[in-house]
Design a protein that fits this description.
With 301 residues, this protein is α/β, with parallel strands linked by helices. It has 11 helices and 7 strands. The longest helix is centred in the first third of the chain and has 21 residues. The chain binds iron/sulfur cluster (SF4). Iron/sulfur cluster binds next to helix 2 and helix 11. The site of iron/sulfur cluster (SF4) has 11 residues, from helix 2 and helix 11.
């Protein structure tokens, strides 16, 4: 079997973590490497387990993403999952995963089973909080999605207009492998990329979506002006889908990507080829509020 190598790569979430806390960046992208193996170091196993953890907000997002993926996959094959069936599936998934987290099934496989931050770190979780942060968000997102008319729009398209996207995909940028995870893509005049969001609009969204546009441009060889990216804020009840109107500033985007990659390279001992990090360059953040929600609290000293 081929030996996996911790290759240097870039993603928007990696950029964000690198900016927020160098120590968390070290744990997530370096210390946890091979932590899935039973014979790896204790730190590797522990940080691997911790990095798979999700808080309530992330969990709500992942429930919606998984469900929408299934609804869309079925719809593109002309199978209909009704709104009522979708709600039932969401309800069941929430109950099953919550119980699995409580029972610590993640000890068998942190990748397979949910490990909720709030359970792991013994946070007080009121029913009101779960209802607001998870149930309400998930159910409203599904309802808004069904009400948007998007599924009926898909029914009017031919099979060949659906573009295949892996769960995670990559494209080359200069000498770096760039990872992106757009949620759905189709071709209808232009290439349209959709990104489901269960949170509120964030200033970071513009850059993240610009990266997706660059991905589409490289993957399907379409001019950037022929790419449309749709951030869909599902939980906000936006009727219909508004295309992302902001113009992609290619020069700004390229400058940002180069700077971000340089910033990550500067933390390495020798260079991206070996991809060994210099721990001394990964101090803890001074923003202690960031630590309150950090999954690595247990190991961070
Ligand atoms: S606990 Fe704080 S300092 Fe430590 S890794 Fe997390 S965010 Fe960084």
């Amino acid at each position: 079997m081929a030996v996996l190598k911790n290759e240097f790569s870039w993603s928007f979430s990696r950029h964000k973590l690198c900016c927020e806390c160098r120590r968390a960046y070290y744990y997530y992208y370096y210390a946890s490497w091979e932590g899935w193996k039973k014979d790896s170091s204790e730190l590797a196993q522990k940080t691997y387990r911790l990095k798979k953890m999700q808080n309530l907000d992330m969990w709500a997002g992942s429930l919606v993403h998984t469900l929408l993926q299934e609804i869309l996959k079925n719809r593109s094959e002309k199978n209909v999952i009704t709104y009522e069936q979708a709600i039932t599936q969401a309800h069941t998934a929430m109950a099953v995963q919550w119980r699995q987290s409580q029972e610590q099934r993640w000890q068998e496989s942190p990748k397979t089973y949910l490990n909720l931050f709030e359970h792991y770190y013994h946070k007080k979780v009121s029913q009101e909080l779960i209802d607001r942060k998870v149930k309400k968000k998930v159910y409203e997102s599904i309802k808004n999605f069904y009400d948007s008319g998007f599924l009926e729009y898909l029914d009017s398209l031919g099979q060949e207009q659906f573009l295949r996207i892996e769960e995670i995909d990559s494209f080359p940028f200069e000498k770096t492998k760039m990872y992106v995870v757009p949620d759905f893509a189709l071709r209808d005049g232009s290439v349209k990329l959709y990104d489901w969001k269960t949170g509120r609009p964030n200033p970071d969204d513009t850059r993240q979506l610009s990266c997706y546009a660059l991905y589409a441009h490289t993957k399907w060889q379409v001019p950037l002006e022929k790419v449309k990216v749709f951030p869909v804020y599902l939980a906000l009840g936006i009727p219909g889908f508004d295309p992302w109107q902001e113009k992609i500033d290619t020069v700004e985007l390229i400058t940002f990507l180069r700077q971000s990659i340089r910033q990550m390279h500067a933390l390495l001992l020798t260079g991206p080829g070996e991809n060994k990090i210099d721990y001394a360059k990964c101090p803890r953040t001074e923003n202690t509020r960031r630590c309150e929600t950090c999954v690595f609290q247990e190991v961070c000293v």
